[in-house]
Amino acid sequence: MKRFHLEVTRVHVGDIQQHPENAWVGDLDTIRESMEANGIYRPVYVSKVTGNILAGNHTYQAQVDAGEEYIDVIYLDGLTPDGERRIMAVDNQSGRRGHYDPDALIPLLHTFGGDFTGTGFDQAYLDGLLNGLEQDEVEFEDMKPKSWSVIVECESFDQQQELVDRFMTEGLLARGTGTP
Hints:
alpha/beta, Conserved hypothetical protein from pyrococcus furiosus pfu- 392566-001, ParB domain, five-stranded mixed β-sheet, 6 helices, 5 strands, 37% helix
């Protein structure tokens, strides 16, 4: 198992940049609210080779938006472009694959006494848990998605292309991910 030397360094925001292939659309409002309430408590992870942010693209953006000139980073050295993309992908995906234990989350949320500022949660979410809804049925009151997406598995490249073309003619944004 490869180990990186993890040392926090403060750099000018112009010395690093968001990864151009980052596909994750982070919740900047929640990140900003957390930074206001809790402070900046984590660095971003950056490729020493390219200066691309691999983890914390939206943390970086929230700090830039707030007028920060310097940001704490941990440089990861010796990465290939493929290695950069893999770290970025797993950082974005690993949290989505987990889930909350309601028996632990409900008591935690109660400790906030109804003030969820800086937590990313709200009363509607807690109420949903208390009413026995499954986690994927619980919606955040103020965090409705601005767009929706669907994944369709196709049997062939031709079928994929036919569906992409059909969706595009219906005015939907569509793209195929497989190649012939």
